Amino acid sequence: MDEKETVRLIQKYRHDLMNRLQIVSGYLSMEKTDKAKRNLDDVLRYYEEERNLMRLNADSFMIWMLQFQDAYPSFALTYRVELLESVEKSIDEQELLITCKKLLAVLSEAAEELHVYDLFLHIQEKETHWIIRMNIKDVTLENMNVKHIEKQHGISVIQEKEQTSFEWNIAKVERGD
Questions:
Q1: Contacts (Cβ under 8 Å, ≥6 apart) of 100
Q2: pLDDT, averaged across the chain
Q3: Which H or E element spans position 44?
Q4: Distance between CA atoms of 94 and 79, rounded to whole angstroms?
């Protein structure tokens, strides 16, 4: 990432933070303290989740996540990172990043134009490995080669009503702090 890209990313990040705080400020100025508190709680939850994302010690993946909306405008991403108390081993960030990018390429091909899909990424630390789940609503498996996804990438694919779930495991690696 060059200097211009870095500055653009920081500007976008700052802009997003200011928007979130202005909403809280607006509710406070209208003396709607209940709404202000709910929004502030949402902001705090968002940044707490981001802190967990940073604790993965996966810088390239973190940057990819921060640039996600620009790269994949057809998807509205939310995520959750569940870590054990002591993070002694880290995730193989290259495997995580490559698999997510490949899966997003497949999903982008299956996506309908002018439709924004809700996408939820869940990264969960277990004692011996990481479980990665990606859920997407309203995408049809007919547009995807499910067997190829399962065989080529080692990803389990499950369709339930209007939601498709992708799940895979990543082994833990020694932390390289």
A1: 61, 64, 121, 132, 134
A2: 88
A3: helix 33-55
A4: 18
